[in-house]
Amino acid sequence: MDFSKFDLVEKANEGAWMTITDPFGEETDARVKLVGTDSKLYKRRLHQIGDKNRKVKKGLKAAELETEMLQTYAVCCVDFEKCFLGKKEVKADNQEDVIAFFESYPPVLDQIAEFLGDRTNFLSS
């Protein structure tokens, strides 16, 4: 079996589109492009968290870990389509807006976590 045909790292770096669903599980016209857990961006973010955790004597507190999780998911979002907070369009290059979107619509965090947890999402992109 030649496993190089899967090239998970390259596909994770390229990213894949995820359709955002409403609270009832119905697809919307909003989408987010995510890089995968095998991507350079994601790995770099994990290293940053690890380095930060090592600098703290007793480790990160729960609230700090939640903030780190939000920031990690925000880093994985490299593009948005038709995604708004009120009249303001969510843009991937504005991490504060991305995190504000996560905080105002928490179901998207579950959707992102599930999407990132399935590598096949990146193989089919």
Salient structural properties:
about 120 residues; alpha+beta; three-stranded antiparallel beta sheet; two-stranded antiparallel sheet; 6 helices; about 50% helix
Give a description of the structure.
- By secondary structure, the chain is α+β, with helices and mostly antiparallel strands.
- Helices cover 50% and strands 18% of the residues.
- The chain has a three-stranded antiparallel sheet with strand order 1-2-3. The chain has a two-stranded antiparallel sheet with strand order 4-5.
- α2 packs antiparallel against α3 (62-76) and α3 (62-76) crosses α4.
- The radius of gyration is 15 Å and the shape is globular.
Order of helices and strands: HEEHHEEEHHH
Helix content: 40-55%
What is the general shape? globular
Largest sheet: 3 strands, antiparallel
pLDDT below 50 for ≥5 consecutive residues: which ranges? none
Number of domains: 1
Q: How many strands in all?
A: 5
Give a nutshell description of this structure.
By secondary structure, this protein is an alpha+beta fold.
List the topology elements.
Layout: H1 8-14, E1 16-21, E2 27-34, H2 40-55, H3 62-76, E3 77-81, E4 84-85, E5 88-89, H4 95-104, H5 107-116, H6 120-123
Antiparallel strand pairs: 1-2, 2-3, 4-5
